[in-house]
């Protein structure tokens, strides 16, 4: 597969059927029998020329996965989590999609209107890739699928790929990801290169009980600037599935990275996301997670501030319905002095949904002059919804300013009355209020080119909720 | 300018003395079923209490140390090296004149009889496992207030105390409540009849005198409908080379419309493991308020709780913790809202000095289908030195759309500008630091009874004075 992708990093790569075909996984499923279960050792990846270290690390990861215990709720990192929703034996390893499905999914991969580049994956196979601005390739920007990068940029890849251990509870699932990962995004932005428009990546899950292990590895060199948006989508919303995504975001001195992830899997999918961000001197990281899909969605987000002047903004907006559960664990790890972090997670809870937020600000002994902030807000819309908040602080230096807050409340009666008195229906009024509540998060995104699609996804979710609330008579 | 780095150690000289041991009853070292039987026999308890203790011992042995969330320092407690019962007799004196001379001198040095004369409605003074002195003013006794030790309470007034004993904090609540249930001795059982408002506070003073000793007092306070009572406890121990264990269980029951205030000033020497379970039950319109100040001990783990069982019940925890060199104050609050219209408030302030570590751990729980429950939690931490540490670990669970919870925490250090400003006006660095720290906790200290707040202020002053050369 890798030798094919070589030729693809060309600016004038056209949107043609042949071009898409060229990137399509060549080998259709050969084994027509039962697909391999997730709890069986994964097949060796079919890519050629994969380095030995990579293959060995996969095999070792599988061993660790088998050796590690399934987490238990008595562990602090899994407190309040509904572990019963995770049934790994129910899923099979990723299977390539058929040609017509691939066409359909590429068609449906519509993000924002003005973007710098795009990749589309389905069930962990690359379907489509482009880079729209010719000058970016000339400037040395690398925009490749993982399996190509591991061969062609071996040193760079190895230096950063899953170097940071999962520290927020999901070691076992990180090992599973490492054992299964086949593809994903590799983005390298050279020194001082600024990419004005966002790059977009679509990961699709297709087929009942399928699985996916999306990976995103971004290296933003000193002084560079880039925005990347990951979209996690399901082909059919009624299909079950398992997704375990990992990303490594490395932000060099003075660089700026905005990472957006819209998690919109079908509502029967079990989703894991393990994020690790490293913020170097004077660098700025901004991450925004829009959480809409999955039955159980666990997001672990780690931001390590390892250089003076570094800043990390961690944002999330979550909309729940039905019995969805969103389990969010974060760590703002201040390693070096003079660093800043600011976290804002907002959850809107309907029906019998449940959220867990466990966030920690850790200030290491050396990290004097830390300025850290953390806030979680739960908007309770139903009497059967449950919000768990565990905002934490561990402060080992004294010259610091650290604050956190957690609130759980309901729609303000006066706000509601104001809207009702202007003839707006109760449902519409409530929706407006929820919109306003979440907009505070979305508005913090500095990149105007990346927001319209988020708004559209949010609107779709509200429409879905409305349909479920008022089934056709 | 650089912030002043005060090197502060806490003044515990007032409590750091001991008398030679002269125990008549000694359960020996280590904990077995025989130890528990010995305690029960010496106390001449009815069979049901002995069975209660033995069952608790089984629970204790089965339960693992909670080190998956708590500090590993707990593993340094060697249960087999501890002496579980030491006393000279089971009957407390009603008059200081009858208290053995060394015990009397101990409490005199700590100022207990003097305070009793001045402002207390009743006093119990516990020396190792049993109370040496227990008395309430006649007027208070005449109102029907019962103020006795745990064993006496269970033996003489079972109709009042047995109903609630071990109900607010069941044996299996945690490993240390199980331990206490197995070997408890001493503490206060208090009953305040309906409508009686006890004007002056009742006080208990807990003193550990012997090395390698474990003190396990058990307190149960019942305020009947519309009653009001304030209870204060103080504690000290001499500084021994080896670790000492203090593990109390305190249960409060505030019936309809009753009010209980429970004040603690904990100043154990810093070789004491202080692992205490405290919980109150507040029925309809009742109020339970914990005012908790932790200055001493090596490790304190204490999270006073209120279960608001009746509508409009109120729970409150006011907590001050001062963690000096080598100390870990792991304190917090637990608020369980189990009825509509219940409100709770938690205000916690901690100061970490030197290598001290202050931890706030809290839980707020609002189950389904309740309405108008409100919780407010505020945690502020002040750090004095670069080696000081503070943590905050709250857990808030809210179900339903008709409640409002808010939690806020902040961490700051003494501002260099403030200290500089005061020093310019002629204060020493120590005085300036002392003023700042007192200012930080002032609004909480004011909630303590006068005598305690004066004492607290003095303790802080003393430390800060000596802190800078």
Number of strands of chain A: 20
Largest protein-protein interface: A-B, 40 and 37 residues
The overall pLDDT of chain A, averaged over residues, is: 90
Radius of gyration of chain B equals 22 Å
**Assembly of the depicted chains:** heterodimer
Structural descriptors:
heterodimer; A: 473 residues; alpha/beta; 10-stranded mixed beta sheet; 11 helices; 20 strands; 36% strand; globular; disordered N terminus; B: 469 residues; 12-stranded mixed beta sheet
Account of the 3D structure:
The complex is a heterodimer of chains A (473) and B (469). Chain A is an alpha/beta fold. Chain A has one domain. In chain A, 23% of the residues lie in helices and 36% in strands. In chain A, helix 6 crosses helix 7. The longest helix of chain A is centred in the C-terminal third of the chain and has 19 residues. The N terminus of chain A is likely disordered. Chain B has 469 residues and is an alpha/beta fold. In chain B, a hairpin with a 2-residue loop joins strand 3 and strand 4. Strand 19 of chain A pairs antiparallel with strand 23 of chain B, so a sheet runs across the interface.
């Amino acid at each position: 597969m890798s030798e094919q992708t070589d030729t693809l990093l060309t600016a004038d790569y056209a949107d043609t059927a042949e071009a898409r075909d060229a990137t399509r996984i060549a080998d259709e499923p050969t084994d027509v029998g039962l697909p391999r279960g997730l709890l069986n050792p994964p097949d060796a990846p079919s890519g050629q020329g994969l380095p030995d270290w990579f293959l060995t690390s996969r095999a070792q990861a599988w061993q660790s996965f088998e050796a590690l215990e399934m987490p238990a709720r008595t562990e602090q990192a899994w407190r309040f989590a509904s572990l019963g929703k995770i049934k790994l034996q129910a899923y099979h390893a990723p299977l390539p999609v058929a040609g017509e499905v691939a066409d359909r999914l590429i068609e449906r991969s519509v993000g924002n209107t003005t973007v710098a580049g795009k990749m589309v994956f389905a069930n962990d196979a690359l379907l489509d890739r482009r880079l729209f601005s010719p000058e970016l390739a000339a400037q040395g920007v690398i925009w490749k699928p993982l399996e190509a990068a591991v061969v062609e940029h071996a040193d760079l890849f190895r230096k950063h790929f899953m170097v940071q251990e999962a520290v927020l509870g999901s070691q076992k699932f990180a090992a599973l990801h490492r054992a299964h990962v086949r593809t994903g995004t590799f983005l390298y932005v050279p020194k001082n290169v600024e990419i004005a428009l966002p790059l977009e990546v679509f990961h699709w899950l297709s087929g009942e009980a399928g699985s996916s292990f999306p990976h995103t590895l971004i290296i933003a060199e000193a002084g560079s600037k880039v925005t990347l948006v990951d979209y996690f989508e399901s082909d059919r919303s009624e299909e079950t599935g398992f997704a375990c995504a990992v990303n490594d975001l490395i932000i060099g001195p003075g660089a700026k990275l905005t990472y957006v992830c819209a998690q919109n899997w079908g509502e029967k999918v079990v989703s894991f996301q393990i994020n690790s961000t490293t913020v170097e001197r004077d660098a700025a990281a901004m991450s925004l997670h829009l959480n809409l899909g999955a039955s159980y969605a666990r997001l672990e987000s780690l931001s390590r501030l390892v250089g003076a002047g570094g800043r990390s903004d961690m944002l999330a907006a979550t909309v729940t319905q039905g019995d969805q559960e969103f389990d969010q664990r974060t760590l703002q790890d201040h390693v070096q002095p003079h660093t800043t972090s600011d976290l804002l997670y907002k959850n809107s809870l309907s029906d019998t949904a449940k959220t867990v937020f466990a966030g920690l600000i850790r200030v290491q002994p050396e990290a004097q002059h830390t300025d850290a902030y953390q806030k979680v807000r739960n908007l309770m819309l139903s009497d059967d919804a449950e919000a768990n908040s565990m905002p934490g602080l561990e402060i080992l230096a004294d010259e610091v300013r650290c604050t956190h807050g957690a609130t759980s409340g309901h729609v303000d009666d006066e706000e509601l009355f104001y809207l009702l008195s202007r003839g707006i229906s109760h449902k519409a009024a409530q929706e407006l209020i929820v919109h306003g509540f979440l907009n505070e998060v979305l508005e913090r995104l500095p990149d105007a080119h990346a927001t319209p699609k988020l708004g559209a996804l949010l609107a779709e979710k509200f429409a879905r909720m409305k349909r479920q609330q008022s089934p056709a008579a | 300018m650089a912030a002043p780095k005060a090197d502060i150690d806490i003044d515990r000289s007032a409590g750091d003395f001991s008398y030679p041991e002269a125990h008549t009853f000694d359960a020996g070292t280590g904990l077995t079923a025989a130890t528990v039987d010995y305690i029960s026999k010496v106390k001449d308890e009815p069979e049901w209490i002995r069975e209660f203790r033995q069952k608790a011992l089984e629970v204790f042995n089965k339960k693992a140390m909670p080190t998956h969330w708590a500090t590993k320092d707990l593993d340094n407690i060697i249960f087999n090296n501890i002496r579980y019962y030491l006393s000279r007799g089971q009957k407390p004196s009603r008059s200081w004149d009858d208290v053995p001379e060394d015990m009397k001198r101990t409490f005199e040095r700590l100022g207990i009889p003097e305070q009793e004369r001045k402002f207390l409605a009743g006093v119990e003074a516990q020396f190792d496992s049993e109370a040496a002195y227990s008395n309430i003013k006649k007027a208070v006794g005449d109102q029907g207030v019962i103020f006795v030790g745990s064993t006496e309470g269970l033996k003489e007034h079972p109709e009042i105390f047995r109903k609630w004993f071990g109900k607010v904090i069941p044996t299996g609540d945690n490993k240390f409540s199980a331990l206490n249930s197995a070997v408890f001795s001493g503490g206060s059982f208090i009953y305040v009849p309906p409508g009686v408002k006890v004007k002056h506070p009742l006080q208990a003073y807990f003193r550990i005198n012997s090395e390698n000793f474990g003190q396990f007092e058990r307190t149960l306070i019942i305020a009947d409908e519309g009653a009001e009572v304030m209870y204060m406890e103080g504690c000290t121990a001499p500084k021994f080379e080896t670790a000492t264990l203090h593990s109390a269980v305190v249960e409060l029951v505030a019936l309809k419309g009753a009010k209980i205030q429970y004040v603690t000033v904990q100043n154990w020497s810093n070789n004491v493991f202080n692992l205490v379970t405290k919980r109150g039950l507040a029925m309809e319109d009742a109020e339970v308020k914990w005012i908790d100040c932790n200055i001493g001990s090596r490790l304190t783990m204490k999270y006073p709780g209120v279960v608001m069982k009746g509508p409009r019940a109120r729970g409150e925890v006011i907590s001050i913790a001062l963690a000096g060199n080598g100390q870990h104050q792991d304190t917090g609050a637990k608020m369980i809202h189990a009825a509509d219209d219940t409100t709770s408030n938690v205000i916690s302030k901690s100061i970490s000095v030197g290598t001290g570590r202050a931890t706030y751990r809290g839980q707020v729980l609002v189950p389904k289908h309740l309405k108008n429950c409100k919780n407010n939690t505020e945690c502020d931490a002040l750090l004095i030195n670069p080696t000081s540490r503070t943590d905050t670990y709250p857990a808030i669970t809210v179900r339903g759309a008709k409640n409002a919870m808010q939690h806020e925490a902040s961490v700051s250090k003494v501002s260099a500008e403030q200290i500089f400003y005061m020093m310019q006006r002629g204060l020493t660095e120590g005085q300036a630091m002392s003023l700042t720290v007192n200012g930080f906790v002032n609004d909480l200290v004011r909630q303590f009874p006068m005598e305690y707040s004066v004492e607290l202020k003095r303790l802080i002053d003393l430390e800060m004075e000596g802190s800078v050369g």
